[in-house]
Specification:
Blueprint: H1 2-23, H2 26-33, H3 41-54, H4 57-68, H5 70-78, H6 82-102
């Protein structure tokens, strides 16, 4: 009986981990795949939550690309258009909020 309970618990853990990655947003997925030392599910989930409240879906996809290629962020920051500047303002606000609520920076 105990063996059956342990196997069931292991199956639930695997299912939970799979469900987390299935329902993770673009920033959480990128965060979890990044090679940063402080990567963990709690931090990445928190950052995703902040993104949901501060960034549009298009902005989230753009920001997710920054995890894989940080040079993209530099290019976005250096862009001169009004839309680019507005995006960068939203991105900075997101970063500040993520740092405040998640301890991420």
């Amino acid at each position: 009986m105990m063996r059956c309970v342990l196997q069931g618990s292991a199956a639930l853990l695997l299912l939970g981990a799979s469900a987390t990655s299935l329902f993770a947003g673009p920033i959480q997925q990128a965060c979890l795949r990044s090679d940063r030392n402080a990567v963990n599910l709690a931090a990445c989930s928190c950052i995703e939550g902040v993104a949901e409240f501060t960034l549009s879906a298009a902005d989230q996809r753009k920001v997710a690309g920054f995890f894989k290629d940080p040079e993209r962020a530099e290019k976005a920051r250096a862009a001169d258009g009004r839309a680019d500047e507005a995006f960068w303002d939203r991105y900075e606000s997101f970063g500040s909020q993520a740092e405040l609520y998640c301890g991420a920076g």
